[in-house]
Amino acid sequence: MQTTGAVQLRPWLEAIAAIATALNRPASLPEVLDLLSATASRLLGYDFCAVLLVDEPRSKLVITGAHGLSPRYIEQVNADHPVVLEPDDEPRAPSSRAFLTGTSVQVPDTVADATFLPWGGVARQQGYRSMISVPVFSAGIPVGTLNCYTRMPHEFGPDEQELLSLLADQAGVAIETARLREREAATIASLTTANTALRRGEEVHGQFTRVALRGGGVAGVAAALSELLGTAVTVLEEPSGVPLAAVGDPVEDGQATLVVLGNETVARIVVPRTASPLAALDVRALEHAATVCALEVLRARTAHEVEWRLSGEVVSDLLAGSAAGLVTAAERAGRLGLDLTKPYAVIVVNGGPSARILSVARSLAAAAQPRALAGAIGDDVVLLWPADAGSQAERLLTQLRRIGVGPEAAVAVSPPCQALADYPSAYRRGRGAATIARLRGTADAVASFGSLGVHGLLLQLQDVAELRRFAAETLAPIRTYDAARGTALEQTLRAYVSHDLNTAATAAALFVHPNTVNLRLRKAEQLLGVSTSQVRVLAELQVALSADDVADALAV
């Protein structure tokens, strides 16, 4: 058995490429699933593998593709011992549990596991002692499982399960591709049966069939549609709005047709508005183009999936400060097209829906020249951008606001990093700058150290404990007083400083009378032994009041 630690990147990339090639030609779904099963067996050293798909009533799982399993075993399981999802009087099979729970289920030893007894006969007949069942999803809906078997007892580790999940994703892509082809065939059939425009329907059919068969990409779809309609065509990615293809002058505010993949809108095809409604056949041509465009987007996603995973690993290792990750980060980044001997800035997005933000960030990074990388660290979305990234950070913020990501998401940009050792600190401070921008209500602009005033200066400090110590020592008298009497002297002083020493504005923010503000300020001055009318005192108080905010932001 080959352990995942020994799995090399090249064989996996070649295997993914082979699967993508199979998806690009009109291969049957069982053929592609056989290839997936053989790929899992070959790369991970398993004895048998199979892909089981749910039947139409969604009551049982049927072996649809396999490698190493005998035809008799497949026939016997499908006909006499089907994997029933909800059996009446028997326990659920491992495949049923994986399908229904959406998580992998393994049996390290079928003989030692008493719950596997109902399936022990077929296991002995086929000759396996361990198995794992990994759920397969298509457009977010469970559609089957990827099952792998070994002749000897075996514990399937986390790395193996991760790699099997990647292959299960490819199985989901194959199923979605088959469905798209069915939709495409239905659209073509509808076009070709239009009695009033048979020749035109054949032309549409021919154009888009050629695009689909040669894998012409989104640009090929746009070119074919432009030729058919005799007009400009623009294809925009969703939700980022980044142009994927344009023929003729870019169309921004025109008639849009949505490109849907499963339940997700992935793009918009936009053509100029006309005084009269489009002809019925032109509308069908747009619908057909949307179907083929969805197939091309799916192909592109398949090709990018491995690159996105590798990019995310490089970003995480480089910015999280992993000593082991930093050793190989430059080399791995180089294989993705980044030369880390040159300066790169760190753009951090803190807060907001990370999945949508990451989609927009990836779209921007994919179009960057020189190359940029996008990834996620926890709930933060991070980009490595060549040199001065201020304008790109502004563009990212604009696109986030355009898709409805509100002020809960703040964008910050660091100065360019000159060495690998600079990146963890740049990320840490950038995250702090974004966090402070959100706390101060200034997330409508890109944050940088210079834009945050005293907060930005304090972010340059590495010692969080020193910041807290300074704040604690400076503000100790009023904090002790507040704790003992339940007053709000520190809160009032913070509001007074943040509202530019305006008593009325401070009172309005705290919902108290201005006289109350004045009394609290006098008491705070008495306890601290200072006067807020002195510039030096105000400066020290502002630093002390800001220190805790900065320390919280730096404590990643």
Draw up the topology in text:
Elements: H1 9-24, H2 29-44, E1 48-54, E2 60-67, H3 71-79, E3 83-84, H4 94-101, E4 105-107, H5 120-126, E5 130-138, E6 141-150, H6 158-192, H7 198-214, H8 217-229, E7 233-237, E8 243-247, E9 255-261, E10 264-271, H9 280-319, H10 323-335, E11 344-350, H11 354-366, E12 373-377, E13 380-386, H12 390-402, E14 410-413, H13 422-439, H14 454-459, H15 464-485, H16 489-498, H17 503-510, H18 514-528, H19 535-554
Antiparallel strand pairs: 1-2, 1-6, 2-3, 4-5, 5-6, 7-8, 7-10, 9-10, 11-13, 11-14, 12-13
Plain-language structure description:
Belongs to the CdaR family. With 556 residues, the chain is of the alpha+beta class. It folds into 4 domains: 4-175, Beta-Lactamase (2-Layer Sandwich); 194-302, Beta-Lactamase, CATH 3.30.450; 320-459, Reverse transcriptase/Diguanylate cyclase domain (Alpha-Beta Plaits, 2-Layer Sandwich), CATH 3.30.70.270; 464-554, PucR C-terminal helix-turn-helix domain (Arc Repressor Mutant, subunit A). The chain is built from 19 helices and 14 strands. The longest helix has 40 residues, at 280-319. The two termini are 40 Å apart. Mean pLDDT is 78; it is low at 3-7, 194-198 and 452-461.
